[in-house]
Hints:
Blueprint: E1 18-25, H1 31-42, E2 47-53, E3 58-64, H2 70-79, E4 84-85
Antiparallel strand pairs: 1-3, 1-4, 2-3
Amino acid sequence: MDPADPHNLHDTADHPVLETIQIATEGNDCRECVERIREPLMRVNGVQDVKVDEDVQAVFVTFDARKIQNAEVHEAILRTGYKPAPVT
């Protein structure tokens, strides 16, 4: 174990460090439109769960911070053809 690793939590080295981020999806207010993001994101290594809320035009992504970072989640959304937008 690397003592400099911020996720070095004693005996939890083999356990995921889960984080959830909210990503606004600009202009996607129908459930089918936003649901198209879910499947590609679930295939990304480290993503544990994706919830879509079309009312607030946002995606909530839970991921293992040991395997993937926020920027990679945003890149995965861009690859689906959607644009992450600022959360209001």
